[in-house]
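Final report, results section. Input specification for complex C-07:
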Amino acid sequence: MTSVRIDLSRSTSIFHALSDETRLAVVQMLGDGERCVCDLQAALDVAQSRLSFHLKVLKEAGLVSDRKDGRWSYYTLVPDALTEAHDIVHTLASPRSAESHALTVLGRCCG
Amino acid sequence: MTSVRIDLSRSTSIFHALSDETRLAVVQMLGDGERCVCDLQAALDVAQSRLSFHLKVLKEAGLVSDRKDGRWSYYTLVPDALTEAHDIVHTLASPRSAESHALTVLGRCCG
DNA sequence: GTAATATATCAGAAAAAATTGATATATCAA
DNA sequence: TTGATATATCAATTTTTTCTGATATATTAC
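Structure output:
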């Protein structure tokens, strides 16, 4: 199994992005595929500037990406980012050398 | 594959607990096994009340448990909690019905 | 007993994150 | 062109989180 060293701040950034109910709901909706902001807003019933703020947090954490088409912005999950999050959690659950404070990701654990 | 419905607030609580470098470092150390607070403090070089605060956040999220023995408190990872975190992330990466806002955990994806 | 140690908790300060309402920008429709 | 729509951003405020220093409690050592 490959082993990749990552930094704690990347990990906390991802977890922080996932630590809010509105943002999790967005991620959940995007799990079904690309959505425009207007659809997210209609489904989640949040103020427009607030949704925009949360989308920015997700984007800065690398969890979603966006593209513009006409008047609409479409957001999509970045599949690698969730895989990364998955691997980090998996790694946290596994023992490693006590003296190493750098987090060593163990690599893909499932298909 | 079994499918368990969980709530968003449980998920955000877990992710919030993991969204801090000190707390991640603690989780990492506990990955090797139980540690007393004094050992964590020595290794992480943080103020005592600050470490105590972070341990409380982890404990309230159900990620660690503690036991008292004489003057010392020992903290351990709660293995089920990391498995739960792992499953939640795994679930987030998978499509599900758009109208369901409850997060449906797909179940164990790897041994 | 007294002193030292390990830890938790508390109050206040500081820092960070989230919310709100307003405004700006671009695009499209009429 | 005028007006409406989709979205982003900004400033001000509010809320939440974190940090610090002090104090409290229990345990053990002397």
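Residues 4-105 of chain A form a domain with the Arc Repressor Mutant, subunit A fold (CATH 1.10.10.10). The two ends of chain A are 13 Å apart (CA to CA). This concludes the modelling results for the funded period.
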